[in-house]
């Protein structure tokens, strides 16, 4: 099929690449000429593992082009995706100006030659499907009103669930595809588009293998409104789940329990599930905070106070301050101290810094008079470019960042930080203080390496080794070493 994707950010570029990889002919459009220039030259404007290789394959299969000119692409397309940003306004309400402009431009570019489906992939407040339809019609009326009766199109909501860092696998092997639409012909067009994924009838990319036993992807069809609500419900549930783990971890820390053991213990309950229970210094990223705020705003419009969602936001805000409190407890004075932040990206395997805890922590430390050194394997150029006012020292390695520091804070659990030589790290520091904001290290091992260690909700009391906490014959340590995030 002929497809246009509007917006070449984290979602649009990956969506376009995957659809072209499946054999569709794809045009990716963005108003940012710089981004489009990079993509045309084969340079990646974002960091996403294996995206470069997938784009090369996509070009050879269905074909993929990048342009700032929507008109010709929309004219030949069967399906037009909107994947532009919907950032929050100060009030929490989603800023729909990019969506509105994209929808009007689609209207302006349409003709009566074929039936087209306009698909909203951006995360938008409930009711935006209708808004998109209205704006496309307005775009038609404003530019070529004489064609209005001849132009046929349907609007669908197709929320995106990809996670940055594993976006390609999430797109090719999703847990489900959600399609919300009011007319059968709109749904049929999208069923055809997604058939290769639903039936898993494509050769898996070499770098992104198909999960074992995956044969079919569930396709959920709903009304427009339910599809829009599914996206918000999914993200707010995940944010609440992590918030819950953090709340329990904070209590664990006070009573001397170990949050990792507790989460492993509850995660084995099938009703709870083991994923997204990792306590830490709070979630970040472009989606959770913005989507909770947007849903709160919608609820308020209907006179409903969503108390659980308010609490999830409050718990997360407080969680980021825990690092500062822990540093103050150990160093007392932060003025003039040097703090090393390991990791900047809001999570590993991305360069995305939107709502990253690292930035808030760095700003607070600077306000308190500390000096901040940092190292991140990928996100340092983006951080430098996006935060020129942030007076932090960028280092070439984790070891360089911790050298002569008074404390180190593990902010992002990049894989390369798992293998750091903790004893060497401790020996390079002024004071071997480690605040493990992601519970990456074993508290006892860190202490043996010479650190004064503090995780989130972790017990550092000596524990008896043998015969403790066995489940089905497996030592508890083996169970808790399985990632719970
Ligand atoms: N990033 C994620 O992990 C993720 C996951 C699921 C859903 N989403 C949702 O998907 C949407 C896009 O997110 P993103 O992270 O890819 O955003 P992004 O900011 O990385 O990219 C958006 C792109 O849209 C472009 N754009 C804006 N207005 C345009 C217009 N009128 N015409 C053409 N291009 C235009 C911008 O220049 C930018 O390149 C958001 O609504 C987000 O909530 C994001």
Write a short abstract of this structure.
This protein is of the alpha/beta class.
Written account of the structure:
- The protein is of the alpha/beta class and 485 residues long.
- It has 19 helices and 16 strands.
- The strands form three sheets. The chain has an eight-stranded mixed beta sheet with strand order 3-2-1-4-5-6-7-8, sandwiched between helices.
- Helix 9 crosses helix 10 and helix 11 packs antiparallel against helix 12.
- The chain binds nicotinamide-adenine-dinucleotide (NAD).
- The site of nicotinamide-adenine-dinucleotide has 26 residues, from helix 1 and helix 5.
- Nicotinamide-adenine-dinucleotide binds next to helix 1 and helix 5.
Gap between N and C termini, in Å? 37 Å
Q: Indicate the radius of gyration in whole angstroms.
A: 24 Å
Query: What's the helix count?
Result: 19
Which cofactors or ions or other ligands sit in this model? nicotinamide-adenine-dinucleotide
Beta strand %: 5-15%
Mean pLDDT: 94
Number of strands: 16
Largest sheet: 8 strands, mixed
* Percent range of helical residues: 40-55%
């Amino acid at each position: 099929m002929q497809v246009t994707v509007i917006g070449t950010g984290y979602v649009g570029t990956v969506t376009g690449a995957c659809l072209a990889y499946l054999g569709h002919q794809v045009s990716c459009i963005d108003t940012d000429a710089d981004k489009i220039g990079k993509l045309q030259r084969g340079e990646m404007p974002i960091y996403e593992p294996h995206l470069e290789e997938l784009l090369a394959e996509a070009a050879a299969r269905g074909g993929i082009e990048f342009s700032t000119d929507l008109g010709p692409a929309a004219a030949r397309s069967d399906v037009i995706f909107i994947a532009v940003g919907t950032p929050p306004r100060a009030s929490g309400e989603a800023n729909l100006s990019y969506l509105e402009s994209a929808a009007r431009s689609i209207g302006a570019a349409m003709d009566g030659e074929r039936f087209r489906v306009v698909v909203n992939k951006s995360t938008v407040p409930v009711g935006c499907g209708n808004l998109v339809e209205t704006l496309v019609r307005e775009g038609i009326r404003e530019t070529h009103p004489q064609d209005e009766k001849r132009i046929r199109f349907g609007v669908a909501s197709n929320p995106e669930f990809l996670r940055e860092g594993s976006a390609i696998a999430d797109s090719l092997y999703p847990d489900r595809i959600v399609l919300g639409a009011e007319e059968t012909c709109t749904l049929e067009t999208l069923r055809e588009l997604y058939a290769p994924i639903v039936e898993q009838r494509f050769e898996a990319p070499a770098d992104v293998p198909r999960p074992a036993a995956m044969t079919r992807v569930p396709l959920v069809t709903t009304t427009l409104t339910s599809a829009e609500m599914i996206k918000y419900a999914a993200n707010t549930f995940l944010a609440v789940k992590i918030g819950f783990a953090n709340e329990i971890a904070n209590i664990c820390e006070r009573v001397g329990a170990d949050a990792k053991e507790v989460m492993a213990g509850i995660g084995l309950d099938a009703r709870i599930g083991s994923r997204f229970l990792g306590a830490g210094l709070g979630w970040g990223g472009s989606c959770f905070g913005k989507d909770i705020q947007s849903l709160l705003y919608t609820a308020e419009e209907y006179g409903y106070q969503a108390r659980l969602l308010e609490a999830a936001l409050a718990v997360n805000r407080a969680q980021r301050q825990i690092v500062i409190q822990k540093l103050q407890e150990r160093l007392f004075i932060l003025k003039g101290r040097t703090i090393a932040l390991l990791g900047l990206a809001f999570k590993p395997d991305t360069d995305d810094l939107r709502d990253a805890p690292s930035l808030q922590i760095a700003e607070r430390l600077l306000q308190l008079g500390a000096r901040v050194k940092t190292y991140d394997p990928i996100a340092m150029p983006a951080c430098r470019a996006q935060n020129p006012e942030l007076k932090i020292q960028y280092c070439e390695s984790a070891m360089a960042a911790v050298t002569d520091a008074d404390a180190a804070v593990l902010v992002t659990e990049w894989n390369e930080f798992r293998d750091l030589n903790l004893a060497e790290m401790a020996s390079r520091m002024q004071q071997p203080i480690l605040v493990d904001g992601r519970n990456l290290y074993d508290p006892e091992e860190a202490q043996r390496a010479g650190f004064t260690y503090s995780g989130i909700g972790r017990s550092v009391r000596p524990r008896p080794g043998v015969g403790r906490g066995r489940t089905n014959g497996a030592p508890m340590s083996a169970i808790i070493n399985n990632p719970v995030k």
